Amino acid sequence: MAEPFEDMFKESKVFANREVLSPHYVPHNLIFRDKQIQEIAKYLTPSLRGERGRNVFVYGKTGTGKTSCIKNVIERVKNLPVSKAHISYINCRIYNSRYRVLQKIVSDYLPLYAKRGYGIVDIYERIISWIEEDGKVLVVALDEIDVVKDLDDLIYTLTRANSDIKSGGITILGISNKVSFKEELDPRSLSTLYENEMLFPPYNSNELAQIIKERVEVGFKKGMVDQAAINLSAAIAAKESGDARLALKIISRAGEIVEENGLDIVGPDQVNEAAKYAEEDIAYELINTLPEHQKLIVYAIALLSLQGSRYKRLNEDGEMYLFSGDIYDKYVSVANSLQKEAKSSRWYRKYIADLDMQGIIVSYESGKGIRGHTKLIKLSYQPGKIKDTIERTLNKEA
Q1: Which of 54-68, 173-187, 204-218 has the lowest mean pLDDT?
Q2: Fewer CB atoms near the end CB (10 Å): N or C, the chain?
Q3: Domain 290-397 = CATH 1.10.10.10
Q4: Per-residue pLDDT tens for 346-366?
């Protein structure tokens, strides 16, 4: 019985440091993101000086380096001896309400107070007092800000706090995959925002190849990964959505396949096999974190895609797209069948833009000549797998 467990502790013949291949690992040097890091630093400069700066909102598809850049800036700020800013990084998938966000701030800087179970008003007033002690500026970095349940209340509380603070202030640094999330805010919350906005572009194939190569040099044993495998991993991820997380998942899974089968090197064959698993993992993660109506729209696209007859051959390489209007009709039908009230066509268009931003769908304007002027849409992942994934989540929610 001991042998299987003994094998688990043997040194890997493939990997040198698995941690650097993780999508959560933040390298000290973020290649191809110097411009974005400098821009974030520029926007935060007033806060670092102890002044009330403008809020900053960072957008971009999954895997474009938003979180890594923010964390990189936070680490640099910590090492600045003259900085008057204190940055609280908050993952909103974990701290997903106004109360939990304020609790996390208190926990970061007033841990003894955080354990006493105070209500939201007491916590708010304690944060204000702490800021006023020496006129400090609190930068609240809210990663995936759009998933906060009572976002209107949170935004209003943080922005209006500056009216209560006599010396110092609060700056919001929001991170989101969804460009249109602010449009869902209540006008009173929206009116309090005074912000800069940044858009992170997807990585291209050459950039992804260089990112993978740097991680491979540290994460794998020397000579274990063929350059062709690196290039193929980058090309697959670039074609899907320019997602560095996907690229790293592919090369990491390819290494596992080599280790499991006692092979000598990670090559293109292992990458192709790994890509199937990695793409499914990414798709599953994305789909399961979508808001309800975006999930139903994706489900409608998957159903129409599987019907086949609704496809239209529209470009030279034979790619097939669906008409946006057909998708909306199907979405309304799906929502009604689940006894849910479908959103208006206006909200539907915003959701389509968000799904495109996240790389779950690909869309483009048809131009004239195809039903006039319409949007053409296709899934970035296999419709059958998307359909099954959503049906599982719907069954759990039922």
Answers
A1: 173-187
A2: N
A3: yes
A4: 999 989 988 887 778 888 876
**Tens digit of each residue's pLDDT (9 = 90 or more) over 260-314:** 999 999 999 999 999 988 877 777 777 887 888 999 999 999 999 998 645 454 4
Distance CA 131, CA 134 (A): 7
Q: Which of 255, 216, 211 is nearest to 234 (CA)?
A: 211
For 100-131, give the DSSP string.
HHHHHHHHHH-HHHHTT---HHHHHHHHHHHH
| Stretch (H or E) spanning 77 | helix 66-78
Phi and psi at residue 25, to the nearest 5° = -75, 135
Fold of 204-287: Helicase, Ruva Protein; domain 3 (1.10.8)
Give Cα 146 to chain centroid, integer Å: 11
| Strand arrangement of the beta sheet that strand 375-379 belongs to | 312-313, 320-323, 375-379, 361-365
CATH architecture of 34-200: 3-Layer(aba) Sandwich (3.40)
Q: How far is CA 8 from the centre of its chain?
A: 33
CATH 3.40.50.300 occupies which residues in the chain? 34-200
Pairing mode of beta strands 320-323, 312-313: antiparallel
CB 136 within 8 A of CB 86: yes
Question: Could you give the residue range(s) of every CATH 1.10.8.60 domain in the chain?
Answer: 204-287
User: pLDDT of 75-116, one tens digit each?
Assistant: 988 888 777 889 999 999 899 999 999 999 999 999 888 776
Q: Where in the chain is the domain with CATH 1.10.10.10?
A: 290-397
Across 175-184, average pLDDT: 81
